[in-house]
Design a protein that fits this description.
heterotrimer, A alpha+beta, B alpha/beta, C alpha/beta, A: alpha+beta, Alpha-Beta Plaits, B: 5 domains, 7-stranded mixed beta sheet, 26 helices, iron-sulfur (chain A)
Chain lengths: 179, 816, 184
């Protein structure tokens, strides 16, 4: 035989949570309509950075590919020449591919990168309906050209050799001095 | 890297010295270096300049250890420097002595500190550009800086820089900033290859590796300097930035470019071979390989590589892509309809593939018309191979060359035709071996071996060999070795004379072919009068022996040789041809070979890449390149060199699988479809211990011309192929090609004067079939002889001149 | 021109396919197929904070008959593959598959003999979602992208033609290893 409490109070008590919640702020995120920013160091899609003159920071050293636990990165290096220069120094990444269907966004590649060429953005809307489009190539990964940058290949504009770039002893950019 | 145990066993107990290293007592043979003695107890002393195959030099000072020697009272006394200071010693130049006490970095803080100091000094001017350096990941400097270096640098000043990289040859790039001046490359060039165009120049901080500007670093062995460089100072132009070592899959294999069977390591990445390195095999190539073995591998992925079987469309007459089963059926029907069929194969086959061709011809086609010799050949050579070479197993070896007193070379230029053999001969020559060469002139290779020339005009080799039996100076006896090149086949009587010379003097005889598959083809019976294992066709017992394994009978009539097959095809006696990897331009008469392929009613071509043969063929069957199949090459020694499949993902079929497919359609299965099964059948077959064919006795006088002087106003033609030439196996390796020696026609000074041109001017050489223009040079040839490379700079002697070695050609000066 | 001009105001015209697509996407019931860590994120997506019910997807169906979408959340082992296929076969048409996370999409970091290297070896996948695991926003994004697909999906003979076209394309396609560059 249920007690009085069980017969009358308990069924009402169950609604107590509901009633209390009616006066609380709604926690639901209206995701696609209102996007909440991620944590600043969220591991999203990669980006290949550029020097302020537009040259690529990537030197094609393949250390990211070596660090990758999922074997999601493929890099092929090639030689910079005087006529065709993509990065300061001898070597640049001719082929750069990240397979986002393997990548676990762990960030070990970022730690391995000796020139800070590879970093991660906060972008996460990556879903696609086929496998081929989820292999991002170099042109998909390269950072956009900001004002003052010039599309490589071009000569080193900020210094005489790669040492100037790595040490940060840039010569003032042309358009800045003019302005 | 260690003292071989074999050597250790040979030393008597009395020749051992006992020393103490890190508190462990160890006995080593007298003369052992301390660094090697330490290896015996498992202590790795860091080193850069030390290399077991090069003379010690003590250049890098990285191997410093603390050493104490027993004093007069027997107590060990530490070797001291300035008063009160211990002086560490370089263990790579210090020989172990009795009672020595060595403390390495493991037990001695002094040695450890000394090594760290040396490492710091070496790194002062090192650019530390490991991420872009090709050596990064497999670099002794990287590794030893981690294990024996300081964690932090104290050097904050500006580093010395050089422009980089600079080419010291088309193939080798030098980065002087990275160099630690260990002198491994210069010592290799001087001591091993004998091409000392590379040396240490300047002094102090500016000391650097350099080349003599007027003479480029041209060596057939330059790739070895890249491999032994302990830093990334020497890198390869072909491999530059191609891959990183941690991304490569390494597979041991055997080089397919010459008959030396050098051990190599093939590194591939995602189904593509990116580089090849020398393997380590003390019995064969030690640690050295030729540049051709190292850099010549892109031929298998050229654009004209065949990927699908093709059959000739009956309606359009064009080749069209077909499936494998269809191609097998078409090939089998065509061969059945064609009637008598001949089989021509090149010299690049593995032993298993050669065996498959041999069995295919005998069992499926029922013919003995099979020959692997896509070059000048003779019936005398066939008898020589049957009597002396086929199925004889391991004969003269590389190691034997170091043990004998005299080696006679005839019809063989080792530097061009068997590079690894050349290195071993040179090593032996430096220790006192006498090299005698029967050749038209003192080639660069012979000079580097400090050899003696028996100047012989082409065609007179037989006489020279006969004369050698009575030559008191050479004094060939049982302690001598006679190395016979395949080119002697074109000289009537020469092989007979060589066999006779070996018989009378007791010298050992070895036949050194140029191509990797030649010796295997002889063993597999790819000759009209020879069955596998050296069994003669006309020996009933041999046929029965073979029949028990094959389960069929074999024809008893010896077939036609390659020239005979070609002639019979032109005459219409042979309707079908099965051609496996023959380039018509290699044959003695390219025009006739082309005509035969055109005349034959049905041609089946097994090829790697599109050639003249595949264009004329009725069925084209693509086959696997050496890296895409397992197999065995038989070296000139008779040593079997099995290797596995490198590119495991490849679906290309080896020749034997293709032949098995056709044989199945013909209703006469070969009985094996895999390399393993073919290998098993070969070993089941075993060798032949019955009667052999007698050695040939072709007399020399009958066909040779009287003297080496000019016949009329023509010159006698001497020729052979240079190592790096126009060979299709080097297609795509442009950097390697660029290191090849330029085509130069060589004549004697007297002949040159007769031509009325200066050395270096162009001359036109005219043979029966055409002419070629190339620069002329002077060498110590006999008057009336001209030497041409057989296939360099676009000039193919067989094709363009229509002449083979020994033919008469005319040379005219004054061409443009 | 046609019927549009003669209609009174307030009446909208659309195609049957358009209506059917709208209906389908608006009540899109997922089957639970949580296999590993991704399932936790999938559950979170159904919870109050991300609230998939905003898109009519609140009921994760345990019975395949009642489900339209299979979210394969996690690595599929070789042993699980036939089960997965069976569940898929039991679902009623029209049905969709979403490979959630890198393991379901391509095997991810588990490049080994135990894991199916991509669930598309077993069932046709309509949407691939990278991430390890993908955050709920990424899943919602993928589902919305799938909604767009559903909205424009064909019916009847058009559907049959579409299936045939896709089939031909798939048969003629290069192997994945050769499709794009050097990665697989």
């Amino acid at each position: 035989m249920p007690t009085l409490k069980e017969q009358f109070w308990d069924p009402v008590a169950g609604f107590g949570v509901t009633f209390r919640t009616m006066f609380k702020k709604v926690v639901t995120e209206q995701y696609p309509f209102e996007k909440k920013p991620t944590a600043p160091r969220f591991h999203g899609r990669h980006q290949l950075n550029r020097w302020p003159d537009g040259l690529e920071k990537c030197i094609g050293c393949e250390l990211c590919a070596w660090a990758c636990p999922a074997d999601a990165i493929y890099v092929e290096g090639a030689s910079n020449t005087e006529d065709e220069r993509y990065s300061p120094g001898e070597r640049y990444g001719r082929v750069y591919q990240i397979n986002y269907l393997r990548c676990i966004l762990c960030g070990l590649c970022i730690e391995a990168c000796p020139t800070r060429a590879l970093t991660m953005t906060n972008e996460y809307e990556l879903a696609d309906d086929n496998r081929a489009d989820l292999i991002y190539e170099k042109q998909d990964l390269l950072a956009p050209l900001l004002p003052g940058m010039e599309q490589p290949p071009h000569a080193m504009l900020l210094g005489d050799d790669e040492g100037d770039y790595y040490r940060g002893s840039f010569r003032p950019a042309k358009n800045e001095s003019e302005a | 890297m260690t003292v071989t145990s074999k050597e250790g066993q040979e030393v008597a107990k009395a020749d051992l010295v006992t020393l103490t290293i890190d508190g462990v007592e160890v006995s080593v043979p007298k003369g052992t270096l301390v660094i090697r003695a330490a290896e015996q107890i498992g202590v790795q002393i860091p080193r850069f300049c030390d290399h077991p195959l090069l003379a010690p030099v003590g250049a890098c000072r990285q191997c410093l250890v603390e050493v104490a020697l027993p004093g007069p009272d027997g107590e060990p006394r530490t070797m001291m420097g300035p008063p009160g200071r211990v002086k560490p010693q370089a263990s790579c130049t210090l020989t172990a002595s009795e009672g020595m006490v060595v403390n390495t970095q493991i037990s001695s803080p002094i040695a450890d500190k000394a090594q760290q100091g040396v490492m710091e000094a070496l790194l002062i001017n090192h650019p530390l550009d490991c991420p872009v350096c090709d050596k990064g990941g497999e670099c002794p400097l990287q590794n030893q800086a981690m294990s024996n270096g300081r964690g932090e640098t104290r050097f904050v000043e500006t580093k010395r820089t050089f422009p980089k990289p600079i080419n010291i040859s088309a193939q080798v790039l030098l980065d002087r900033e990275r160099c630690v001046l260990c002198a491994r490359c210069t010592r290799f060039s001087e001591q091993i290859a004998g091409d000392p165009f590379i040396a240490l120049i300047e002094r102090g901080a500016l000391q650097q590796v350099g080349i003599y500007e007027k003479e480029p670093f041209e060596s057939y062995f330059s790739g070895n300097t890249i491999q032994i460089c302990p830093v990334g100072a020497l890198t390869s132009a072909a491999y530059r930035f191609r891959a990183r070592p941690f991304d490569l899959v390494s597979t041991p294999s055997v080089a397919e470019h010459d008959a030396c069977g050098s051990a190599i390591r093939v590194d591939h990445r995602r189904g593509k071979v990116v580089r090849r390195l020398s393997g380590e095999d003390p019995a064969v190539n030690e640690e050295w390989i030729t540049d051709k073995d190292r850099f010549g591998f892109t031929y298998a992925r050229q654009d004209d590589r065949l990927t699908h079987p093709m059959v000739r469309d009956e309606e359009t007459g064009e080749l069209r892509t077909a499936s494998w089963p269809e191609a097998f059926v078409v090939a089998a029907r065509g061969l059945q309809a064609a009637g008598a069929t001949g089989v021509l194969t090149g010299g690049r086959l593995t032993l298993e593939d050669a065996y498959a061709y041999s069995k295919f011809a005998r069992v499926a086609l029922g013919t003995n018309d099979v020959d692997f010799r896509a070059r000048a050949h003779s019936a005398e050579e066939e008898a020589f191979l049957a009597s002396t070479v086929a199925g004889t197993g391991l004969g003269v070896t590389f190691e034997d060359l170091e043990k004998v007193g005299t080696v006679v070379l005839a019809g063989l230029e080792p530097e061009d035709e068997a590079g690894t053999l050349f290195l071993r001969l040179r090593k032996a020559a430096r220790k006192g071996l006498k090299v005698v060469s029967i050749a038209p002139f003192t080639s660069r290779g012979l000079a580097k071996m400090h050899g003696t020339l028996i100047r012989t005009a082409p065609g007179d080799e037989a006489a020279a060999l006969e004369a050698l039996a009575h030559d008191g100076e050479v004094a060939l006896d049982a302690g001598g070795i006679l190395l016979i090149g395949e080119r002697l086949a074109a000289v009537p009587g020469a092989l007979s004379a060589a066999a006779a010379l070996a018989g009378t003097t007791g010298a050992r005889l070895a036949w050194v072919p140029r191509r990797a598959g030649d010796r295997g083809a002889v063993d597999a019976g790819l000759l009209p009068s020879l069955l596998p294992g050296g069994r003669p066709v006309d020996d009933a017992a041999a046929r029965v022996d073979l029949g028990t394994v094959w389960g069929t009978t074999v024809g008893h009539e010896p077939g036609r040789d390659a020239a005979g097959i070609v002639a019979a095809a032109i005459a219409g006696e042979i309707g079908g041809l099965v051609v496996g990897g023959v380039d018509p331009d290699d044959t003695a008469d390219p025009a006739a070979t082309r005509a035969a392929i055109g005349a034959a009613s049905f041609v089946v071509s097994l090829e790697l890449r599109a050639t003249d043969v595949t264009q004329a063929a009725d069925v084209v069957l693509p086959v696997a390149a050496a890296a895409e199949k397992a197999g065995t090459f038989v070296t000139w020694e008779g040593r079997q060199r099995p290797f596995g499949k490198v590119l495991v993902e490849s679906h290309a079929l080896p020749d034997l699988r293709v032949l098995a497919g056709i044989a199945d359609e013909l209703g006469t299965p070969l009985g094996f479809k895999t390399v393993e099964a073919a290998r098993a059948e070969l070993s089941e077959l075993g060798g032949w211990d019955g009667d052999r064919v007698a050695a040939p006795t072709v007399s020399t006088g009958s066909t040779t011309r009287e003297s080496s002087t000019t016949d009329g106003d023509g010159l006698r033609l001497a020729t052979w192929k240079q190592m790096i030439d126009d060979a299709s196996m080097l297609d795509g390796d442009d950097y390697l090609r660029a290191t090849g020696r330029a085509a130069v026609a060589l004549v004697s000074a007297g002949t040159l004067a007769g031509l009325g041109v200066e050395a270096g001017a162009n001359v036109t050489v005219t043979g029966p079939g055409g002419s070629a223009t190339l620069p002329v040079g002077v060498a110590d040839l006999a008057d009336g002889v001209v030497w041409l490379p057989a296939g360099s700079d676009g000039i193919n002697v067989n094709r363009d001149l229509g002449a083979t070695a020994g033919a008469t050609v005319s040379v005219e000066g004054g061409a443009a | 021109m046609g019927i549009e001009e003669k209609l009174p105001s307030g009446v909208l015209l659309t195609t049957v396919e358009g209506v059917a697509g709208y209906m389908r996407k608006a009540s899109f019931w997922p089957a639970t197929f949580g296999l590993a860590c991704c399932a936790i994120e999938m559950m979170t997506s159904g919870g109050p904070r991300y609230d998939l019910s905003r898109f009519g997807m609140e009921v994760f169906r345990a019975s395949p008959r009642q489900a339209d979408l299979m979210i394969v959340a996690g690595r599929v082992s070789q042993k699980m593959a036939p089960v997965l296929r069976q569940i898929y076969d039991q679902m009623a048409e029209p049905k969709y598959v979403l490979a959630m996370g890198v393991c379901a999409s391509s095997g991810g970091m588990f490049n080994n003999y135990a894991i199916v290297q991509g669930v598309d070896h077993v069932v046709p996948v309509d949407m691939y979602l990278p991430g390890c695991p993908p955050r709920p926003e990424m899943l919602i994004d993928a589902i919305l992208k799938l909604h767009k697909q559903v909205q424009t999906s064909k019916l009847g003979s058009n559907r049959r033609d579409q299936i045939e076209a896709l089939e031909t394309e798939a048969l003629n396609a290069l192997p994945t290893s050769e499709m794009k560059g050097l990665l697989r």
